[in-house]
Design brief:
This protein has 17 helices and 25 strands. The protein is an alpha/beta fold. The strands form five sheets. A six-stranded mixed sheet has the order 7-6-5-8-9-10, covered by helices on one side. A six-stranded mixed sheet has the order 13-12-11-14-15-16, with helices on both faces.
Length: 649
C-alpha cells in the first residue's frame, strides 16, 4: 500500500516534469519563430523572395528554387551573417539553365586612303583567314589591321550573303565604314560628287541581299562658293530673294526665316557650300534685312564680307542716317558696309508713255563698243557718246541710233547706266528696255555682278528692274608666272620655321595662331597651283601607336580642309598621318615631344628622300646613344679595375 504522501509526491514530480517539458518546448518554438522571422526579413530585404527558411531547433534549412547557383550562394551568405554556418543546411534547388543563346556575329570594316581595319566576331568555321585573303586582294599596298575574334558556332546562309555584300562594296568605296550582321548592314561613305553619291546609293540599294535591312549614310563634298553671295530686293509687294549662299543647313534656315518674315514672292532657295567668309554670315544678313525694312525697302547685296545697301527713294535723309549708323555699329567684325541713299527721280518719269523699244550696247574682246537702237533725242545721244568715249576711247566707240521722242523720261539715265555697267565686262551686251535692263557677258572681276548691281542701283535710284547674267571667266586671264615647285616648298618651310601649325591638346582643332599661319601658307600655295604636296601629320610617342596614327591622319586632313576653305586648289594634295614613326627630337622630354607634334609640307616627289633623312637621323642618334652607353660601361669597368689594382698594392 502506498502512502498518500508518497502518491502525492509522485504526482507532483510528474506534473513538474510535464511542465518543464512544455516550457522547454515553448521556448524552442519561440526561438525558431524568432529565427525564421529575422532571417526571412533579411532575405526579403536583399531581394531573395524565392528563398524559404525552415528552422529545426538550433539548425536552419534554406529551401526554395533559386534562379541561378550564384543567387543560391548569395542567399546562404545572408543567412550565415545571422546564424553560425555550421547550423545552416542548404536544401535550395537551382532552376536548370536555359540553352545558351547563339553568338551574334558582327563585322565592321573601316577603310581610309591607305588602311583597312577589321573589328568583330565571326564564325570559326568560316575562317578569319578567308576574310583576310579577300581584304588583301583588294588592298594591295594598304595596311590591314586585324582585330577579329572567332566563335565556334554555326551560321546560316543569310550571314554569308551579308558578308559577301559588305566585302564586295568595301572594294568600291575608298573612304567608308561598313557594319555587317546577318539581318542588318550599315554603310557610311564619302563620295567625290553629288552625282557619284546618287549612283552609289542606287547601286547599294539594288544589290542588297534579301531579308537584310540596309541603312545608308552616303555624303558628298559641298561645292566651293566663291564669292559667297546674298541679294534681296524689298518693295511694297514684299521681298524677292535674288541670290543666297550659306555654309550649313542651320545657317540656311536662319537666313530663309529672316527673308520669309518680310513677306516673300517667288521661291526661297539658298545654296549650301564651302567658303563662308565668317561664321557671323547669317547674323549680318539678319541685321541688314532689319535695316532695309526700317528704311521702307530697297536692295541689299553681299559679296563675301562686302555689303552694298541701297535704300528706297522714299527714305528721308534723317531716317537713313539713323538706321545706317545703327547697322554699322551692330554688324559683326570683318563686314564693310556701303550704304546709298539714291536721288529722287522726277514724278514725270512715272507718267511717261512706254513703248516697246531697245537700246543695245555691245563690247567685244578687242575693246570695241557699238551702240544701236533708239535714243530719245540728240542731246542724250551726245551724252552717251561722250561717256562711252571717256571709258573706252573715242576710236573704239561707234553709235548708230534712231531718235524716238516717245521713249520714257528716264531713258537717258538708263542709257548712261548701261554704258557704265559695260565697263565692268571684258565682253558682253547691255540691252535697255522700257521695263528692264538686261546685262550679260564675261568678266575677269569675280565681283563683277555686285559692281554692276551697285552701278545700276545708284544711277537708277533703286527703282530699276534689271537682270544680270555675268560669269567670271579666268580663261581670259594671261597665263600667270608661277613659282617653281621647289621654291614653293622652300618658302613654306621658311614660314613654318617661326610659325608652327599647332592644335588644341588632344584634339584636331587648330589654335587661333595656327589659323593665321595657315592663311599665310595659303597665299604661297596660290603661286604653286601645279605643285603636288603631301601634308604630313606627326605625333609624339605618348599613347598607343594606333591612336596616334589616327590623330595624325585627322590633323593632316584638318589642315587640308583649312586650305580648301581658303580657296586653295587641293586636288593635287595628299594628307597623310605618320603617328610617332618619324620623331625629330627626344620623346623623353617635354620640349622634344612638342617638337615631334608637327605638320610638315613636303613635295610628293621629295617625300621618300625627306623621310629617309629623318630615319637616318634617328639611326645615328640611336647609334650614338649605344656608343655612349658602351663607352660609359667600359670606363666604369676600367675604373673598377684600377681600384682593384690599387687595393692589392
Amino acid at each position: 500500500m502506498f502512502r498518500p504522501a508518497y502518491i502525492f509526491a509522485c504526482v507532483c514530480f510528474i506534473m513538474a516534469g510535464v511542465g518543464a517539458w512544455y516550457a522547454a518546448d515553448q521556448s524552442v518554438k519561440y526561438f525558431e519563430h524568432q529565427t525564421e522571422a529575422e532571417i526571412s526579413t533579411a532575405l526579403n530585404a536583399a531581394g531573395f523572395d524565392w528563398a524559404r527558411v525552415r528552422p529545426d531547433g538550433l539548425r536552419v534549412a534554406l529551401t526554395g528554387l533559386a534562379p541561378t547557383e550564384v543567387e543560391r550562394f548569395r542567399a546562404l551568405e545572408v543567412i550565415t551573417k545571422l546564424v553560425d554556418p555550421d547550423r545552416v543546411e542548404n536544401l535550395a534547388l537551382v532552376i536548370p539553365p536555359k540553352d545558351i543563346a547563339p553568338p551574334r556575329f558582327t563585322l565592321e570594316v573601316l577603310r581610309s586612303e591607305d588602311r583597312i581595319s577589321l573589328i568583330g566576331l565571326v564564325p570559326k568555321a568560316l575562317g578569319r583567314d578567308q576574310i583576310l585573303r579577300r581584304i588583301e586582294a583588294i588592298t594591295e599596298d594598304m595596311t590591314v589591321t586585324d582585330m577579329l575574334e572567332t566563335a565556334d558556332h554555326g551560321f546560316d546562309t543569310q550571314w554569308l550573303a551579308a558578308l559577301d555584300y559588305g566585302l564586295e562594296n568595301i572594294k568600291r568605296l575608298p573612304r567608308s565604314k561598313i557594319s555587317i550582321t546577318a539581318d542588318q548592314i550599315t554603310v557610311t561613305a564619302v563620295t567625290e560628287s553629288v552625282e557619284q553619291q546618287q549612283s552609289v546609293k542606287s547601286r547599294l540599294a539594288l544589290t542588297k541581299p534579301d531579308n537584310v535591312d540596309l541603312y545608308l549614310d552616303i555624303s558628298a563634298p559641298r561645292p566651293v562658293i566663291a564669292p559667297f553671295r546674298f541679294r534681296l530686293a524689298l518693295n511694297s509687294d514684299g521681298a524677292e530673294l535674288l541670290s543666297c549662299s550659306s555654309d550649313t543647313e542651320q545657317t540656311r534656315q536662319r537666313i530663309l526665316s529672316a527673308v520669309a518674315s518680310l513677306g516673300v514672292h517667288g521661291k526661297l532657295r539658298c545654296e549650301i557650300g564651302l567658303g563662308v567668309p565668317t561664321t557671323d554670315w547669317a547674323e549680318a544678313i539678319e541685321k541688314s534685312l532689319d535695316a532695309l525694312q526700317e528704311l521702307g525697302g530697297g536692295n541689299v547685296a553681299f559679296s563675301d564680307a562686302d555689303i552694298t545697301l541701297i535704300a528706297s527713294d522714299t527714305a528721308t535723309s534723317d531716317r537713313f542716317e539713323t538706321v545706317i549708323g545703327r547697322l554699322e555699329s551692330d554688324l559683326p567684325e570683318l563686314f564693310t558696309l556701303n550704304a546709298i541713299l539714291p536721288p529722287k527721280l522726277s514724278d514725270n518719269s512715272e507718267s511717261s508713255v512706254i513703248r516697246p523699244s531697245e537700246l543695245i550696247a555691245e563690247l567685244s574682246l578687242a575693246g570695241k563698243v557699238r551702240v544701236t537702237g533708239r535714243i530719245d533725242n540728240t542731246v542724250s545721244r551726245t551724252s552717251v557718246m561722250s561717256v562711252a568715249s571717256a571709258m573706252f576711247g573715242s576710236e573704239n566707240v561707234e553709235i548708230d541710233t534712231l531718235t524716238d521722242p516717245d521713249l520714257p523720261g528716264e531713258w537717258p539715265v538708263r542709257a548712261l547706266a548701261a554704258i557704265k555697267a559695260l565697263q565692268v565686262l571684258e565682253e558682253g551686251t547691255v540691252v535697255v528696255q522700257p521695263e528692264k535692263i538686261l546685262i550679260s557677258g564675261r568678266s575677269l572681276d569675280e565681283e563683277a555682278s555686285s559692281e554692276i548691281d551697285r552701278i545700276l542701283a545708284t544711277d537708277l535710284g533703286g527703282r530699276g528692274n534689271y537682270e544680270i547674267n555675268v560669269v567670271y571667266d579666268e580663261s581670259l586671264l594671261p597665263a600667270p608666272e608661277h613659282k617653281a615647285d621647289q621654291a614653293c616648298e622652300d618658302a613654306i618651310m621658311r614660314i613654318m620655321t617661326s610659325n608652327q601649325i599647332a592644335f588644341d591638346p588632344g584634339s584636331v582643332i587648330l589654335t587661333k595662331e595656327s589659323e593665321r599661319t595657315l592663311s599665310i601658307i595659303s597665299e604661297e600655295f596660290r603661286d604653286c597651283p601645279d605643285a603636288r604636296f603631301e601634308i604630313q601629320g606627326h605625333t609624339d610617342s605618348q599613347g598607343p601607336d594606333d591612336l596616334n596614327l589616327e590623330i595624325s591622319q585627322s590633323r593632316a586632313e584638318t589642315v587640308l580642309s583649312g586650305l580648301l576653305n581658303r580657296r586653295v586648289l587641293i586636288d593635287r594634295m595628299l594628307a597623310k598621318g605618320y603617328g610617332p614613326e618619324l620623331p625629330i627630337a627626344d620623346n623623353e622630354t617635354e620640349e622634344g615631344r612638342a617638337a615631334n607634334r608637327r605638320i610638315v609640307f613636303v613635295l610628293q616627289s621629295n617625300v621618300e628622300a625627306a623621310n629617309s633623312k629623318v630615319r637616318e637621323a634617328i639611326a645615328r642618334a640611336e647609334a650614338e646613344a649605344v656608343a655612349a652607353a658602351e663607352a660609359a660601361e667600359q670606363e666604369a669597368a676600367e675604373s673598377a679595375s684600377e681600384e682593384g689594382t690599387d687595393g692589392s698594392n
